[in-house]
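Inverse folding, one chain.
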């Protein structure tokens, strides 16, 4: 019987080198990811520390003050812990909801809508101008944005001043009012109409320049294709312009909302704002409660409420940006 001779089986190739190489590459990848995550925070750390000192610590102190009944005395002050009594007293006031909150919300919404509409119209106009005229007109409108809020408010107060103001004289010459007996700063609706003009005049240049920066990035071929398809000006704007620069509108909308909710100077500097509760918004109400009425606890509580509103708006803004970034990817 013959025996069949078979060659010995070749040893299986070792997988150690491949596994070792893969492990090293995974370690390097994890290290890169760790560095990519930690490096930005490391670079931002000094600025974050400064911001924490300038913003976070005062915010903590205001929150602490809102939970106390604080009395100013010579050489300092004494606070008595009252818990949420200031918030309960504040939120239970009908005048606070009827005037302060209502003024803040409706005034901010009106300012945001009008600022974005006017800023967009100006941006569309600038986009159609030549380089020289665009530079001239852009510089002119930026002067309104660069004007301090105090100066701009005084100008609008001068325009609508009783008897001697340009606007009352013009309305009187048309027979609409009697300038001698009409004072628009003593009535709630005219008061906030003037304040809205002031805020919109001060804020629309930022919207115009920002929207213009988005408009110049839109390819002209898209508009030419729309015109060939028979789209009119409104259809081209709604179907081409708005989708193309939607992130720009989102940014200016959220930022304008934050700014207009916390308007203080344009209201406080107008006549009658410190003497009539129906003229106040949350910012001026907080200031007058704390420093005019020496009710620091209630003033701090209203400031915390305004901060929470702005925080919610900011969170919505950040979430919207992240969502927009995911859609772009």
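Residues assigned per position:
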């Amino acid at each position: 019987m013959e025996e069949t001779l078979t060659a010995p089986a070749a040893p299986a190739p070792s997988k150690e080198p491949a596994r070792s190489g893969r492990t090293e590459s995974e370690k390097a990848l994890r290290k890169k990811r760790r560095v990519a995550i930690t490096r930005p925070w490391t670079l931002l750390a000094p600025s974050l520390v400064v911001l924490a000192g300038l913003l976070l610590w005062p915010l903590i102190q205001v929150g602490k003050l809102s939970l106390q009944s604080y009395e100013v005395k010579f050489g300092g002050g004494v606070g008595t812990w009252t818990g949420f009594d200031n918030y309960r007293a504040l939120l239970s006031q009908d005048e606070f909801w009827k005037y302060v909150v209502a003024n803040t919300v409706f005034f901010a919404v009106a300012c945001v809508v009008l600022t974005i509409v006017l800023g967009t119209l100006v941006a569309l106009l600038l986009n159609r101008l030549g380089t020289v005229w665009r530079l001239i007109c852009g510089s002119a409108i930026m002067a309104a944005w660069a004007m301090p809020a105090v100066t701009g408010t005084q100008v609008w107060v001068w325009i609508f001043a009783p008897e001697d103001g340009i606007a009352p004289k013009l309305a009187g010459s048309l027979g609409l009012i009697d300038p001698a007996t009409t004072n628009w700063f003593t009535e709630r609706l005219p008061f906030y109409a003037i304040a809205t003009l002031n805020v919109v005049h001060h804020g629309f240049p930022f919207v115009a320049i920002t929207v213009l920066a988005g408009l110049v990035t839109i390819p002209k071929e898209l508009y030419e294709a729309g015109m060939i398809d028979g789209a009119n000006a409104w259809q081209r704007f709604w179907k081409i312009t708005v989708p193309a620069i939607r992130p720009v509108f989102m940014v200016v909308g959220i930022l304008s909302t934050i700014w207009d909710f916390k308007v203080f100077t344009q209201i406080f500097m107008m006549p009658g704002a410190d003497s009539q509760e129906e003229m106040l918004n949350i910012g001026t109400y907080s200031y007058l409660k704390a420093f005019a009425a020496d009710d620091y606890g209630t003033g701090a509580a209203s400031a915390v409420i305004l901060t929470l509103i702005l925080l919610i708006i900011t969170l919505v803004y950040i979430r919207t940006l992240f969502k927009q970034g995911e859609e772009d990817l």
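The first strand starts at residue 68 and ends at 73. The chain has a mean pLDDT of 84.
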